[in-house]
Each structure stands twice: as structure tokens, then as C-alpha cells.
Design brief:
3-stranded antiparallel sheet; globular; binds pyridoxal-5'-phosphate; alpha/beta; 39% helix; 7-stranded mixed sheet
Length: 360
């Protein structure tokens, strides 16, 4: 049959979402399975968000404001920057795609750490760019010196995931300062801070506040995690006005939905509650890390809402054993397993499953 789509996409892995809880519960014949596989914060929508959604739905026969003016103004006020520097999108992952589209032509290079967020290779391939993967250090963090070395005259984009998904490690200000000073001024550096609100190490910089004014830095943020809007898809980026304007040209029109805009506005009024929830996640993150270390798993310090178990080629078997006990985690064979921090009860169920799986 005549081929209708690009042959190079055959080699591209599919994005793997966390497994469906209802399917697993049915398979195991249990009431409820636990999903700790998609880095969601477990406490439900923030107060006021369901009501804002219900109200917005009444206007859902209309297109949303394509300029997202009210929400961008609120974000500008919250982060202390000009609204023209903010672009919103259908999750920050869509904005990463738009960034690749706005910077890369086929054959250009995108440098990123590996292992890191599994969408990066897909985003690079989508625009025909070459992925340049720089292996993480032995401590599972970005090797920024090697990433700087990997930049060539074909490099258009370098992505630093801070904290890194899936290892939870974070790069600190001193290293980042040195790295940014070494990147050529015509290469765009994307600082992907999807988990920023969970960072507790004071030496890990807030990139909007610290590097937002640099002309070749773009900061990606999401409202999917700490702000509890994963299902509504609302991310944003902060860039210099010319870069933001170029990205707006390649945006899918109306991709920040009417409901997402209303929900984000309601969520932004709940910052104290966001902080309270993040503190709960952080205290559970420390508890789960300690418990796993007691089981002899060398879990690196996490600055996000998940922990990394460097189990090597035992990752898939560990993941399957946890699923057998009703807990879905995310195995990345042959490197390790990422476990999202859930409620204390969910984490207890996971730790019980982990003890059993590690013994097996
Ligand atoms: C590092 C990183 N960046 C971006 C995203 C995408 O978030 P969203 O598209 O939901 O805003 C994720 C989600 O898992 C992530 O881990």
C-alpha cells in the first residue's frame, strides 16, 4: 500500500501515559487500584475550581479569548513580569512542542539530558530535529558541563529539566550560572520547571526570578501538578517578547480552552492552599525516600512530587509486582522506577507493595 505518513515516525516510541486504575482494579478483582504513575497531586481540585468550571461551561458554545488576556494579566501580576512575555498553552508539553517548531528546522539539534522527560524525544522527532541525549551523572542528575560540550552549530534548543523528571534531581544556581554563561547567545535554553512549587532546596533557583531577563532563556511552567489542573491542560511559558511573539505564531489557535482559563483564574486565588498541599507532599516525599533507603534502594534526593528508584533492569519486574498488589508505578526499563507521591495511605500501600516486590 502507498505510504501516507513519515517513515521516520516508525522508529519513534509512543508517549506512555500512566496505566488506567479502573482497568487494573477490574483485572485484580479489587475495589480500587492506586495510581502513582503520572505525577499528579492527589488532593482533588482546589476550592472554587469546580464552581468556576461549572460557570464557564455555560459559555462553552463560544470560542475562548485567544489572547488569554485576563489570565495572562493575572499570571503577570503573580510572577512580576510583563504579560507580553507570557504564552499559555494546552499543557506545558504543547508549549515545548511550539518552542521546537519555532526554533528548529529538519536536521537541527535539540540537546537534553537522558534520562529525562519522555516527551522530549517525541517533540524533537516531530519537527525532524536530531535529539542529542547527554547521559545523566552517576548521581542521576544533569551533567551540565557535558550538555554545554554537546552544543554544536546545529543546536537550536537545549532543555534543562529542573527538577528532572523522572529522577527528581535538581541543578543548583552555581552550576546553572556557569552553564548559561557558556551557552552561545543564539541557542535557546528552555528551563522546564514543571515541579517548581515542590522545590525546597534554597540553592535551586526559581528560573523566572533568576534568569527570566536573559535573552536566550525560556521558562516552562505548568498548572497540572501543584495547581491541580492536569485534566484541564494549562501550561505557560515566560520568554523575551520577541521569542514569545514567534511562539504565538505557531500556536494552535484557541488551545487554552475557555474552561482551562476560568479554572486557572480560580486556582490562582488559592495560593495558600497550594502551599499547604505542597508541604504535605514534601513531607511524604521525605518519608517515602527514607523508607525506601531503609530497604536498601539508593533513592536520590528528590525536589519534585515523585521519587526515583534506580533498579536498573529489575525495573519492569518491580513495576509488575507493584501492579499485582494494586499499585501502579512507572517503570522505565532498564533504568529505574518513578513513584509519584500520593496520600499517606496510598504511600503506605506502595511501601508495603515495594517491600514485597524487592524481596521477591
Ligand atoms: C518535566 C515535565 N515537563 C512538562 C510536563 C508537562 O506538563 P503539562 O503538559 O501537563 O503541563 C511534565 C508532565 O509530566 C513534566 O514532567
Amino acid at each position: 500500500m502507498t505510504r501516507l505518513t513519515r517513515a521516520d515516525l516508525d522508529a519513534l516510541p509512543n508517549y506512555v501515559p500512566g496505566r488506567n486504575v479502573a482497568d487494573l482494579a477490574r483485572e485484580l478483582g479489587i475495589d480500587e487500584a492506586i495510581k502513582l504513575a503520572s505525577n499528579e497531586v492527589p488532593f482533588g481540585p482546589l476550592p472554587g475550581v469546580p464552581e468556576a468550571i461549572a460557570e464557564a461551561v455555560r459559555s462553552s458554545h463560544r470560542y475562548p479569548d485567544m489572547g488569554v488576556a485576563v489570565l495572562r494579566d493575572k499570571l503577570a501580576e503573580r510572577y512580576g513580569i510583563d504579560a507580553e512575555r507570557i504564552v499559555t498553552g494546552c499543557g506545558s508539553v504543547a508549549l515545548a512542542e511550539h518552542l521546537a517548531k519555532a526554533t528548529c528546522l529538519p536536521g537541527d539539534e535539540i540537546v537534553y539530558a537522558w534520562r529525562s522527560f519522555e516527551a522530549y524525544p517525541i517533540i524533537a522527532a516531530g519537527v525532524g530535529a536530531t535529539s542529542v541525549r547527554v547521559p545523566n551523572t552517576g548521581d542521576h542528575g544533569h551533567d551540565l558541563a557535558a550538555m554545554a560540550e554537546a552544543i554544536t552549530d546545529r543546536t537550536r534548543l537545549v532543555i534543562v529539566c529542573n527538577p528532572n523528571n523522572p529522577t527528581g534531581t535538581a541543578v543548583r544556581k552555581e552550576e546553572l550560572d556557569r552553564f548559561l554563561a557558556s551557552v552561545p547567545s543564539d541557542v535557546l535554553v528552555v528551563l522546564d520547571e514543571a515541579y517548581r512549587e515542590l522545590v525546597t532546596d534554597p540553592d535551586v533557583p526559581d528560573a523566572i526570578a533568576t534568569y527570566g531577563d536573559r535573552h536566550n532563556v525560556v521558562v516552562l511552567r505548568t498548572m497540572s501538578k501543584a495547581w491541580g489542573l492536569a485534566g484541564l491542560r494549562m501550561g505557560f511559558l515566560v520568554a523575551q517578547p520577541e521569542v514569545a511573539a514567534a511562539i504565538r505564531k505557531v500556536l494552535t489557535p484557541f488551545s487554552t480552552s475557555l474552561v482551562a482559563q476560568a479554572a486557572a483564574l480560580a486556582a490562582l486565588t488559592q495560593e495558600d492552599e497550594v502551599k499547604r498541599r505542597c508541604a504535605l507532599v514534601v513531607s511524604e516525599r521525605d518519608r517515602v525516600t527514607e523508607a525506601l533507603r531503609k530497604l536498601s534502594v539508593p533513592v536520590p534526593e528528590s525536589q519534585a512530587n515523585f521519587v526515583w528508584m534506580p533498579l536498573g533492569d529489575k525495573a519492569a519486574a518491580f513495576g509488575a509486582a507493584c501492579e499485582g498488589r494494586g499499585v501502579i508505578v512507572r517503570a522505565f526499563q532498564p533504568d529505574g522506577v518513578r513513584v509519584t507521591i500520593g496520600t499517606p495511605e496510598e504511600n503506605d500501600a506502595f511501601l508495603a507493595a515495594a517491600e514485597h516486590a524487592l524481596d521477591a
